[in-house]
Amino acid sequence: MRILASEVKKHIGKEILIQGWLHKKRLLGGLTFINVRDRQGLVQVLVQDKDEVEKLRGLQIGTVLEIAGQVIEDERAPGGAEIHDPKLTVLVPVVDEPPIEIDKQLSHKPDNLDTLFDNRVIGLRNLDEQTIFKTQAKVLEATRAYLKENDFTEMNTPKLLAEATEGGAEVFTLDYFGKTATLAQSAQFYKQMMVGVFERVFETNPTYRAEPSATTRHMTEYITIDVELGFIEFDDLLALASGLLNRITDDVYETYGEQLKRWNAQKPILTSELPRITMKEAHELYGKANKVDMSGEDDLTPDEERWICEYAKKNLGSEAVFITEWPSNSKTFKFYHRKNAENPELADRADLLFRGIEIATVPMREHRYDVLVEQLKTLAGGNPDDPGFKHYLSAFKYGLPPHGGFGWGLERTTEKLIGLNNIKEATLFPRDLNRLAP
Amino acid sequence: MRILASEVKKHIGKEILIQGWLHKKRLLGGLTFINVRDRQGLVQVLVQDKDEVEKLRGLQIGTVLEIAGQVIEDERAPGGAEIHDPKLTVLVPVVDEPPIEIDKQLSHKPDNLDTLFDNRVIGLRNLDEQTIFKTQAKVLEATRAYLKENDFTEMNTPKLLAEATEGGAEVFTLDYFGKTATLAQSAQFYKQMMVGVFERVFETNPTYRAEPSATTRHMTEYITIDVELGFIEFDDLLALASGLLNRITDDVYETYGEQLKRWNAQKPILTSELPRITMKEAHELYGKANKVDMSGEDDLTPDEERWICEYAKKNLGSEAVFITEWPSNSKTFKFYHRKNAENPELADRADLLFRGIEIATVPMREHRYDVLVEQLKTLAGGNPDDPGFKHYLSAFKYGLPPHGGFGWGLERTTEKLIGLNNIKEATLFPRDLNRLAP
Questions:
Q1: What's the pLDDT score for residue B30?
Q2: Could you give the angle at which helices A302-316 and A279-290 cross, rounded to 10 degrees?
Q3: B310 in contact with A at a CB cutoff of 8 Å?
Q4: pLDDT at residue B107 above 70?
Q5: Do B401 and A91 touch (CB under 8 A)?
Q6: Which pLDDT belongs to residue B275?
Q7: Can you give the pLDDT at residue A438?
Q8: What percent of chain A clears pLDDT 90, i.e. is strictly above it?
Q9: pLDDT tens digits for A136-195?
Q10: Is B160 within 8 Å of A431 when comparing Cβ atoms?
Q11: B125 lies within 8 A of chain A by CB
Q12: Which of A262, B12, B128, B189 is the most exposed place for a label (fewest CB within 10 A)?
């Protein structure tokens, strides 16, 4: 029976069988060691028999092996044990030398991402690369667990739409049996409609933006954690988002804290309720420190986002911060956003910044049918009778409670949890203006 | 503080506050009862006060209400308690009568699906409709739990591709900044490449087929549970798939067995290892019983799939069955499938039939680089140097173990678990040739 990397130490003194990839060969003090990789990590094997050493000499990294041998305790080996007196069997031979080295973290060069992605299929076999995507899987798992504990129902909504829901130029269109369809830029309309059904819903889903530039922050396809819930007010919404980021951080670092050290990753410092800074305060603080006048700007620049996060870390004890009090007389105010009841010049919206970048937009929605129809007409130039709006509006016409939610970026969250600098480093197979493969 | 439907009974004798939708009004023996719906179900309220009865008279179904009142134990009420002496407050008024009745299961008419879907946004507020999608969420949850217990890593792969991976006409194409992109018909290539990384991977992901017909079995967008694992043989693969269907069934019926009774749903009878019938046997059994000659056919007809499932239920004690021994000299044999080592005229493939329909294709893959390249050329007319194949093939060139997996249809599984007759009934917002909205 095959023994896996994490189980080897349980078999000290015994003969076992392992299967995996030849991950590394090295000579150490005249001895030949190899590392064999399986889905749980590495097993170290000491090869001494002359014939076996000879057999090994011709094998390329990546060769799929089966090894029978005896387990010897050794604290210096990964997993605390290694295999001696191995008998090697090649299950799948590899003829050519791999295009990149996979046993060194160095192959991950953020200043040459094309090399990284052109060799992605093999480069991901590196254990440190794997840690990024183990972390990402854990973010999803923690998110679902947290939302389920909070009584959310998971759903699946279509990405093929008749019309672009939120308008704008950044929409992919396709031929749909002679008609035109678009790819969903978000699950916005669906998640709001579904508040009328399950009250609390979420979906982890691909999102498409025809973003015609290649930046460190954007891709044309990415995963959004879409969350929406009814019978709540703005404070409830920010509490939910605060709880989610704390939960993700705790679960990721509890499980992968050790592996993440190799990325020099630090567990984010967060308050249980994340602090809030108003847009106006943010502009003032940044303007004062950087001797510029940002007053009146209706959004934050990327540099302001970075600076404010540093400020919050130093002064508010949190590496994540909500930017609140967004202006409602701005293009950042969507027709489905809600104006603040006491000060209609402001939106009930926060952006969640985390380690220098916005990872979620967290607004309340306008739930009153009449007001929504009015905002649709005046702010978006939309016609309530258009098929693209008709179904959406019907959810409101027949009763939706006050509600809000957020679209939360999976890759940005992973990127910043680890301290990477480009969203694409946290994407298995990134898509942008210039890249559709692998 | 708001009390939810499942919590009401814990507050007998106390004054509580509930919030939800007006779901039903009725007169019973001169008394006025209403049901209020929240995310956990219904709360029954007895309205006796004249002013409150009067207030209620003008309210449409769907009105968002807050109700303060006293909890009285009553076994006849949903949840075992009801609210007396209520004080009603309208949180969100509804002016118009909803287009369909939502308190009756009758509104779900499988013979008029257009009505069902044209009113989907409101119709989903029906509790029986909700059971379908609660079931679906549970299928996903059970699947992830089972795969995680079996050491699988979740991943996210792109749906925007440079080329159609599996060829064929049923591919959606879109304009990608002046180039052509396609929508993924499956995660096939990615999950195989990722076996080289994590050994065992899965993804629950949208899948796109430009299927130019409207059937009870197909949609243009649906969710596939994609699973792939290495270092296994065919029997291991069928054992994994058997275990998954059993786990899904157990978890769904444990949680929603009671609600599913309203759909007359029966828990599927399954053996722990699902039985196998060869393609040849299937043709013979069906042919004999139906007095037709199916011998030599390289696939099963929909009617054969139905019949074989009935046969397996009666004779093999299982409502799911694997069809094995698919021919390799057929268009059902893809270039990435593996021929049987002992009999190369057969493929190492099974189709999993469940209650009359194929829910998963379960094949081993050809993992030997040279053989795969040869099959690509001869069976698919593909060029190994094409960018669309280059990355995929590199995973094999640098070492992939024997592996296999399956693409498992989420909606078909949900449909058959409940005993529905059309895949679209198990889809929140279905997409086909004729439908892109809502």
A1: 83
A2: 90
A3: no
A4: no
A5: yes
A6: 98
A7: 94
A8: 89
A9: 999 999 999 999 999 999 999 999 999 765 566 799 999 999 999 999 999 999 999 999
A10: yes
A11: yes
A12: A262
CA quadruple A406, A411, A416, A418: dihedral sign:
positive
Question: Domains (ranges, CATH) in chain B?
Answer: 5-92 (2.40.50.140), 127-426 (3.30.930.10)
8 Å CB contact of A221 and B159: yes
Task: Please name the member of B95, B176, B398 whose beta carbon is closest to the beta carbon of A122.
Answer: B398
Strand, coil or helix: B354: strand
Helices A127-149 and A234-260: crossing angle in degrees, nearest 10, is: 150
pLDDT at B327: 97
Indicate which of B398, B403, B410 best probes the interface with A, i.e. most A CBs within 10 Å of its own CB: B398
User: Does any CB of chain A come closer than 8 Å to the CB of residue B397?
Assistant: yes
Please judge whether A160 and B63 are an interchain contact, meaning their C-beta atoms are less than 8 angstroms apart: no
Interface contact B157, partner A, CB < 8 A:
yes
Residue with tokens 């009999």: B343
Q: Is residue A82 helix, strand or coil? A: strand
pLDDT digits (tens, 9 = 90+) for A40-62: 999 999 999 999 999 998 899 99
C-alpha A62/C-alpha B179 separation (Å) is: 35
CB contact under 8 A, A157 and B63: no
Distances (CA, A) of A125 to A22, B66, B387, B391: 11, 56, 21, 14
User: Is the pLDDT reported for residue B163 higher than 80?
Assistant: no
Written as one string, the DSSP assignment of A409-424 is: EHHHHHHHHHT-S-GG
- Is the model's pLDDT at B169 over the cut of 90? no
B119: closest chain A residue by CA:
A391
CA nearest neighbour of B425 among B211, B217, B261, B138: B217
State the nearest Cα–Cα gap between B341 and chain A, in angstroms.
15
CA distance A94 to chain B (A): 6
Are β-strands A276-278 and A320-324 bridged in parallel, bridged antiparallel, or unpaired?
parallel
Strand, helix or coil at B298?
Answer: coil
Tell me which chain B residues have a C-beta less than 8 angstroms from the C-beta of A401. Answer: 19, 64, 91-92
Structure tokens at B283: 């043709």
Q: CB-based contact (8 Å) between B388 and chain A?
A: yes
Among the residue ranges A23-37, A258-272, B231-245, B391-405, the one predicted with the least confidence is: A23-37
Q: Would you state the torsion angle of the CA atoms of residues B301, B304, B309, B314, taken in this order, to the nearest 10 degrees?
A: 180
- Percent of chain B beyond pLDDT 70? 98
Burial class (CB in 10 A: 0-12, 13-18, 19+), A142: buried
Residue among A94, A160, A194 minimizing CB distance to B398: A94
> Average pLDDT for residues A353-366, to the nearest whole number?
98
Return the residue matching tokens 């069934």: B249
Q: Which residue has the tokens 């009865």?
A: B53
pLDDT per position as a tens digit, B282-305: 999 999 999 999 998 999 999 999
Which of B1, B4, B39 to probe the A interface (max A CBs under 10 A)? B39
pLDDT at B168: 64
Q: What are phi and psi of A46, to 5 degrees?
A: -95, 120
Closest CA to B224 of B202, B206, B242, B244: B206
Interface check for A173 against chain B (CB to CB < 8 A): the answer is: yes
